[in-house]
Amino acid sequence: MTDLDTRAAVTIGHTGGARRGKRSFDPKKRRSLLLTVLLWLCVLYFVLPLWWLLVSATKDNSALFSTFGLWFGGDFSLGENLATLFTVRDGIFVRWLANTLVYSLASAVGATLLATMAGYAFAKYEFPGKRALFSATLGAIMIPLTALALPTYLLFSQAGLTDTPWAVIVPSLVTPFGVYLMRVYAADAVDDSLIEAARVDGAGEFRIFWQVGLRLLGPGLVTVFLFSLVATWNNYFLPLIMLNSSDLYPITVGLAQLQSAASAGGGSQALFSTVITGSFVSILPLIIAFLFLQRYWQSGLATGGVKG
Amino acid sequence: MSHSPALTTPSPPVAPPKRRGASTAKRKQHLAAYLFVLPFFVVFIAMLVVPLVYSGYLSLFESKLIGGDVFAGLANYVRALQDSAFLASIGRMGLFFVVQVPIMLGLALFLALALDTARARGSKAVRLLVFMPYAVPAVVATLMWGYLYGPDFGPIAQIARAVGLGTPDFLSPGSILGSMMNIVTWEFVGYNMIIMYAALRSIPAELYEAAEIDGAGQLRIAWSVKIPAIRPAILLTVIFSIIGTFQLFAEPSLLNAIAPDAITNSFTPNYYAYNLAFINQELNYAAAIAFLLGLFIAVVSYIVQLGSQRRERRERSAS
Amino acid sequence: MRNAPRTALALGSVAVAAALILSGCTPGADDGGTTGPITDEQREEALTTPTELTFWTWVPDIENEVALFEEKYPAIDVKVENVGQGLPHYQKLRSAIEAGEGAPDVAQIEYQYIPSFVLSESLLDLVPYGADELSGDYVDWAWNQVSPDDAVWAMPQDVGPMGNLYREDLLAQAGITEPPATWEEYATAAQAVKDATGSYISNLGATQAGQMIGFFWQKGVKPFGYDGDQTVSIDVNSDEAKEVATYWTELIQKDLISTDVDFQDQWYQGLASGKYAGWLTAAWGPVFLQGTAEGTSGLWRAAPLPQWAEGENVSGNWGGSSDAVLASSENPIAAYELAKFINHDEESAMMLATEQFLYPPQLSVLEDPAFIDLQSEFYGGQEVNKLFAEISETVDTDFQWLPFMDYVYSTYEETMGTVIADKGDIAAALDEWQDQLVAYAEDQGFTVE
Question: Given CB 3.0 to 4.6 Å as the disulfide criterion, which of A166, B262, B270, C143 pairs with C138?
Answer without folding.
Answer: C143
